[in-house]
Design a protein that fits this description.
It contains four helices and 21 strands. It is mostly beta strands. Strands 1-18-21-19-20 form a five-stranded antiparallel β-sheet, with helices on one face. The longest helix is centred in the last third of the chain and has 16 residues, at about 250-265. The two termini are about 25 Å apart.
Length: about 350
C-alpha cells in the first residue's frame, strides 16, 4: 500500500447548494457556549433533499431516518439516451428493471451498489442513471408525507491517493418529481439539483456508498446496521476522509473510519463537537501505513485512539482555539512534549501545518 505524504485539508462549504441560507461563522469568543455550536464546524455529511437531511437508506424497505425506499429502477440495456430525465418519455417498449426492497436483494459491497432480480445479478454501471423512489417524513412528525426520486446521474471508478479503486456516485433529483409536503419547501427548478454540496477543494458533487453503516449525526458515532447504505458526500467529513484521504470504509472498518472522521472534524472530545472549520490543514500519520508526516518539526496537534477521541491534545489546529478552551470543555489531557506515534496507545498522530 502506498503512503500518502501530502498535506491534508478538510474543506466543505458552509453554504447549502440547494437554496438554504449560509450557516453562521464559528465564534470562538470567550463568551461562546461551545456545547451549543454543534453543526457549525466541519460537517459529517452534506446531502440534502431540499432542506431535508438525507444520509442513509434501509435497502430492505424499512422506515429509517424519516425515509423509506419503495423501489429502485435501472435502465434496460439498449437505451443510449444519456439524459436520464428525458429517458422516461423515450424508452418506448423498453421497460426498466425495477427492484422492490425486501423482495429483491439490494446491497452495497465494497462501495459498489448491487442487486439481483430473477437470478440475474446487477452491479457497477448497471446503476448509472438509476432511479430511487423514496417516501419521506419531511416534517419528521412520524408520518410519511412526501415522495422524491433521487437518481444516480453519473458514476465511475476513482482512485484514492494511495492508489486504491472505489466507486463515486453523483446523485441528483428533479424538483418536478417531488410530491406532498416537500413541494412547499423545495423551489422548483428546470434542471437537476445535486444532492451533495460542492466540495470547495475539488468542485466534486459526488458521494460514496458505504455498506451497513449508520452514523449518529449528533455524536459522530459509527455503528454497523445491516441492509443500510450511507450516502457519504465527498464534501462532508465521512466521505472526504475516504475520497481525498484514502481511508475507504470497506478497507479500514467502522472504528478506524469513525476515528479518522473525528480527526478531520477536530472532534477531540468524541462527542460530535467540531473544533475547526473548513480549510484548516493538518498532517496525519497512522499505524496502518496509509499516511505519513511531511514535516516532523511542526507542532503536534493530538494523539488519537481508535474507538475514542484524542488521547491528549497539544495545539489545536484552529488559530482561535486554545488547549485551555478544550480542557475547560471536556478535561482533555495535555500531550507531554513531542512524542512519537503510539506513545499514548494511539494509532493516529496529527501535526499542524
Amino acid at each position: 500500500m502506498k503512503t500518502l505524504t501530502t498535506i491534508l485539508s478538510l474543506a466543505a462549504t458552509l453554504t447549502l447548494s440547494l437554496g438554504c441560507d449560509a450557516e453562521p461563522e464559528l465564534d470562538f469568543g470567550d463568551g461562546d457556549d461551545i456545547t451549543e455550536r454543534w453543526g457549525f464546524g466541519t460537517k459529517l455529511n452534506t446531502s440534502f433533499l431540499g432542506d431535508f437531511e438525507w444520509n442513509e437508506l434501509d435497502l430492505k424497505g424499512a422506515f429509517h431516518e424519516h425515509a423509506q425506499l419503495t423501489k429502485v429502477c435501472i435502465q434496460p440495456k439498449g437505451s443510449q439516451d444519456p439524459d436520464i430525465y428525458k429517458y422516461k418519455s423515450k424508452m418506448g417498449s423498453l421497460d426498466p428493471v425495477c427492484f422492490k426492497p425486501g423482495a429483491d436483494p439490494i446491497w452495497v459491497e465494497k462501495g459498489e451498489i448491487m442487486a439481483e432480480k430473477y437470478g440475474k445479478h446487477y452491479r457497477g454501471y448497471d446503476f448509472e442513471r438509476s432511479s430511487w423512489y423514496i417516501d419521506l417524513d419531511y416534517d419528521q412528525d412520524g408520518t410519511l408525507d412526501s415522495s422524491i426520486i433521487p437518481q444516480i446521474e453519473k458514476m465511475g471508478e476513482k482512485v484514492t491517493p494511495q492508489g486504491n479503486l472505489y466507486w463515486a456516485y453523483h446523485w441528483s433529483y428533479m424538483t418536478s418529481d417531488v410530491t406532498g409536503l416537500a413541494t412547499k419547501y423545495i423551489e422548483q427548478q428546470d434542471k437537476p439539483v445535486a444532492i451533495c454540496e460542492m466540495d470547495v477543494d475539488t468542485g466534486a458533487l459526488e458521494a460514496l456508498a458505504n455498506e451497513d453503516l449508520h452514523v449518529d449525526m449528533k455524536s459522530g458515532e459509527f455503528n454497523p446496521r445491516g441492509a443500510t447504505m450511507f450516502v457519504a458526500c465527498v464534501s462532508g467529513a465521512v466521505g472526504k476522509v475516504q475520497d481525498s484521504w484514502g481511508y475507504l470504509h470497506h478497507e479500514v472498518g467502522f472504528g478506524r473510519h469513525e476515528t479518522v472522521t473525528r480527526v478531520a472534524r477536530a472532534d477531540y472530545c468524541r462527542d460530535g463537537t467540531s473544533f475547526t472549520e473548513p480549510g484548516m490543514k493538518l498532517q496525519i500519520e497512522d499505524a496502518w501505513g496509509f499516511s505519513a508526516i511531511v514535516d516532523p518539526f511542526k507542532e503536534t496537534e493530538a494523539h488519537w485512539v481508535v474507538g475514542g477521541g484524542a488521547a491528549c491534545l497539544n495545539l489545536p489546529r484552529h488559530p482561535a482555539i486554545t488547549y485551555e478552551k478544550v480542557f475547560t470543555y471536556c478535561g482533555i489531557p495535555k500531550c507531554e512534549g513531542d512524542k512519537p506515534l503510539g506513545t499514548y496507545g494511539d494509532e493516529i498522530l496529527t501535526k499542524n501545518w
